[in-house]
Design goal:
By secondary structure, the chain is of the alpha/beta class. The protein is 47% helix and 14% strand. The chain has helices spanning 2-14, 60-71, 83-97, 116-121, 126-132, 136-140, 148-157, 163-179, and strands at 31-35, 38-45, 102-109, 144-147. The chain has a 4-stranded mixed β-sheet, with helices on both faces. α1 packs parallel to α7 (148-157). The longest helix is centred in the C-terminal third of the chain and has 17 residues, at 163-179.
Length: 180
């Protein structure tokens, strides 16, 4: 149900600009949006991760969950690869098609997780982990980490009848945020 809500939000915001992806095929992102010099690659997860307790003294549980969520190597039959591993692969696939576009990989979570820079400043050391896992595409194109609430708010600012304007507003917002 939450996945359908995510899909509906993307339809509301970007409309016809979403590339039609066959969800039955593996190794595909949840959505790709192309616009002028940009390619937005969306990966969505409802995977649960523990948050650190307000009065807890250990962050080990959340770091373990983040490691699994972002960098899991598919070892067990039902295990899903980490979302950053997927995003790195999807960026690689897009680079094979065209190298002259700015690629923005985006991880959307059900709950707030934090952004790339925040997670790099913590003991989790996201930047270091990306390098350790040899995710070279994500070293160049840092992923944007959003939650569904972010997309809901953005949806309220857009006109569903004007997908071009919505995409440009989304891209402008990302660029403005990344400059600060």
């Amino acid at each position: 149900l939450v996945e359908q809500y995510f899909e509906n939000l993307l339809d509301q915001i970007f409309g016809k600009h979403r590339d039609g992806l066959d969800k039955k095929e593996e190794n595909q992102p949840d959505a790709i949006i192309t616009h002028e010099n940009y390619t937005l690659i969306f990966e969505f997860t409802v995977e649960y991760y523990r948050m650190a307790a307000l009065y807890g003294s250990s962050y080990a549980d959340i770091y373990k969950d983040l490691d699994k969520l972002l960098f899991n190597k598919k070892k067990k039959k039902k295990a899903q690869p980490g979302k950053f591993i997927n995003l790195d692969k999807y960026v690689s696939q897009e680079l094979e098609k065209s190298t002259n576009k700015i690629i923005i990989p985006i991880l959307v979570t059900e709950r707030y997780l934090g952004d790339y820079e925040l997670l790099s400043q913590t003991q989790f050391e996201l930047d270091k982990k990306v390098k350790e896992h040899k995710l070279t595409n994500l070293q160049k194109f840092h992923p944007l980490i959003l939650c569904l609430d972010d997309l809901e708010i953005f949806c309220g600012f857009t006109d569903p009848k004007n997908g071009d304007q919505s995409i440009q507003l989304f891209i402008d917002s990302i660029e403005s945020w990344q400059k600060e």
